[in-house]
Design goal:
single chain, 28% strand, alpha+beta, five-stranded mixed β-sheet, Rossmann fold, Translation Initiation Factor IF3, 3 domains, eleven-stranded mixed β-sheet
C-alpha cells in the first residue's frame, strides 16, 4: 500500500491528500468544499476531543449548545466582527420546498421575514443569550464551551486544513475585569499548547497576532504555531481577548459589589479539525500515517502468520490473551484475524494507518515463546520473550511519543533562521524556507510589503520574555517585537 503514497519531497500536497484518502481518514463530499470524516479519522478526532474536554472541565468550564442558525440582525450589531466573516457566510432565506411535476422547488411563499446565517462562529448569538444570564457579579465568571460545527464558505479547500464546514470547539467566557479576561485568554492558549506538545507531539511557538491578522473584533489574539514537514507554518489554536466589544454591542452589564453597572469583559477561543491536518503533516512519511501513541485509536495491532488452522487457533488463543493483558493497563489493541488477507497486506495496511506498534505471531514464536515487535516511527523490529511483553509495550509507547516530539522539535530548530535585513530574509525564504525570526517596527505597510513580495506573512509576534530588542528588518527602527515570518497554510 505504501507505494501508492506520493513522495512528500516531490509533491507534498498530493502526499498529504493521499494519506488522508488512503488511510481512510476522510473523503470529499458531493457538496463542494465539505468533507466526510470516516470512522478511523473520527476515532482520532474523538480522542482529541475527549482529552481537551477533560482539560477544559478541570479548569471550571462547562459545555453547552447553541443553535446553528443566527438571525442576520445579530451579526449587524458588531460591524468589525461581521466584516471578517461577511464573504464566508451561508444564508438561509426560505423555510419550505414544494414539489411540482416531481421537481423540487423553493416555495416562494415561505420567504423568511429575516434571513438566518449558518454560524461561522457563535459570538453574536451567545452574547445575545448572555444578556439574559448575567445580572450580577455573582454570575461571573461565566465559563462556557461548545462543541459544534460551523460553516465558512471557502473558495479553496483542503481536507481537514480548510473546508467549508468543519468541527471545532469554541469557548466563550465573561468576566468582571479586563485583567481576569486576559488571564483567561492566556490560560486557554496555554492549555492548547500543553495538549499540542504532550499529546500531539508537536513543537510549538506561542505569541500574539499582528493587528492585521487578529480575529475579527478582537483586541488581542494569542496564537500557537507549528512548522510542518514542508517547512510551512500552521496555526493550530487561537485564544482571543475581546474586551467589551460584544458586551457593549449586546448591552450585557452586571451589578458589581459597589452597586455599579458595568459592561462585562470577554474572551473566545477555539481549535478545530485542522489539528488532524497538523498530525498528518508533522509526523507522517511515504509509507503513510504516523500517529503519536496517545492519540492512536489502536496503539497495538496483532497479526498472525500461519499455514494451517491448528497453528491459527493457537495464535488466536495467545492473541486474545495478550489483548486482555493490554486492556488491563489501558493500552488499546486490535487482532486482525481475517483469513482473506495475507500477512504482507496487513503489515502495509496498519503501517498506512499509523498504528504505533505491530506484534507478529508465527509458528516459531509459539515454539520459542517469543514475539516480533515492529515500531512504526523508526520502522525497526525486535524480538522479545512473551513474559516481557507488557513492560516492553508500555516503554515503547512512551519512547515513540517522546521520539516523535523530539523529531518535530529538531525540525523546527533546524528550520528557524535569524536574519536582520530584508535581502537575507528573501534569500533564506527562497533557499531554505521555514520560519524567519527578525524584528519589526509594527508598521502594517512593511507587513504588507513583505507579504506581497515574498508570500510570507507575520505568523506571530513571539513571546519575548528576555526583553530583547533589535533593529526593524526594513526601517531599522529600534524594536522589541521579535516576529516570525513564514509561508503558511
Amino acid at each position: 500500500m505504501g507505494k501508492f503514497i506520493s513522495d512528500k519531497n516531490i509533491n507534498f500536497s498530493k502526499w498529504y491528500n493521499d494519506i488522508v484518502i488512503k488511510a481512510d481518514l476522510a473523503e470529499h463530499s458531493d457538496i463542494r468544499g465539505c468533507m466526510i470524516i470516516k470512522p478511523y479519522g473520527y476515532a482520532i478526532w474523538e480522542k482529541i476531543k475527549a482529552v481537551l474536554d477533560n482539560m477544559f472541565k478541570k479548569t471550571g468550564h462547562l459545555n453547552a449548545y447553541f443553535p446553528l442558525l443566527i438571525p442576520k440582525s445579530f451579526l449587524s450589531k458588531e460591524s468589525k466582527h461581521i466584516d471578517g466573516f461577511a464573504k464566508e457566510c451561508a444564508v438561509v432565506t426560505h423555510s419550505k420546498l414544494k414539489s411540482i411535476n416531481n421537481e423540487i422547488l423553493i416555495d416562494d411563499n415561505s420567504k423568511l421575514k429575516e434571513e438566518l446565517i449558518i454560524r461561522p462562529t457563535s459570538e453574536t448569538l451567545i452574547w445575545h443569550t448572555y444578556k439574559k444570564w448575567i445580572k450580577s457579579y455573582k454570575d461571573l465568571p461565566l465559563l462556557i464551551n461548545q462543541w459544534s460545527n460551523v460553516i465558512r464558505w471557502e473558495i479553496r479547500t483542503r481536507l481537514f486544513l480548510r473546508t467549508s464546514e468543519f468541527l471545532w470547539q469554541e469557548g466563550h467566557t465573561a468576566h468582571a475585569s479586563s485583567e481576569e479576561a486576559i488571564q483567561e485568554a492566556i490560560l486557554m492558549r496555554n492549555i492548547y499548547n500543553d495538549f499540542i506538545k504532550n499529546w500531539m507531539a508537536i513543537e510549538t511557538i506561542m505569541g500574539i497576532k499582528t493587528p492585521k491578522e487578529r480575529f475579527a473584533g478582537a483586541i488581542e489574539t494569542y496564537c500557537i504555531e507549528g512548522l510542518m514537514q514542508d517547512k510551512k507554518s500552521l496555526q493550530m489554536g487561537t485564544s482571543h481577548f475581546l474586551g467589551q466589544i460584544f458586551s457593549k454591542a449586546f448591552d450585557v452589564k452586571f451589578l458589581d459589589q459597589n452597586n455599579n453597572n458595568n459592561y462585562v469583559w470577554s474572551t473566545s477561543w477555539g481549535v478545530s479539525t485542522r489539528l488532524m491536518g497538523a498530525l498528518i503533516m508533522s509526523h507522517s512519511d511515504d509509507k503513510g500515517l504516523v500517529l503519536p501513541p496517545k492519540l492512536a485509536p489502536w496503539q497495538v495491532v496483532i497479526i498472525p502468520v500461519y499455514d494451517n488452522d491448528l497453528i491459527f487457533n493457537k495464535i488466536s488463543h495467545l492473541a486474545n490473551n495478550i489483548m486482555e493483558k493490554l486492556n488491563k493497563v489501558n493500552i488499546t489493541s486490535i487482532y486482525d484475524n481475517k483469513k482473506y488477507h495475507r500477512p504482507g497486506f496487513k503489515f502495509s495496511h496498519y503501517e498506512l494507518k499509523g498504528v504505533p506498534i505491530r506484534i507478529t505471531i508465527g509458528p516459531n514464536d509459539l515454539q520459542d515463546n517469543t514475539l516480533e515487535i515492529f515500531r512504526r516511527d523508526t520502522r525497526k523490529k525486535m524480538t522479545i520473550y512473551k513474559e516481557e511483553l507488557i513492560s516492553t509495550i508500555e516503554n515503547l509507547l512512551k519512547e515513540i511519543q517522546s521520539n516523535l516530539y523530539k523529531r518535530n522539535k529538531n525540525h523546527m530548530i533546524n528550520n528557524t533562521h535569524f536574519v536582520d535585513n530584508y535581502d537575507d530574509l528573501k534569500k533564506t525564504l527562497n533557499s531554505k524556507g521555514g520560519m524567519i525570526m527578525s524584528y519589526w517596527d509594527g508598521s502594517q505597510e512593511i507587513e504588507n510589503k513583505i507579504k506581497n513580495e515574498t508570500q510570507a506573512s507575520i505568523i506571530c509576534i513571539a513571546d519575548n520574555k528576555e526583553k530583547l530588542s533589535g533593529k526593524s528588518i526594513i526601517s531599522k527602527v529600534k524594536s522589541n517585537k521579535r516576529v516570525l515570518f513564514a509561508k503558511s497554510y
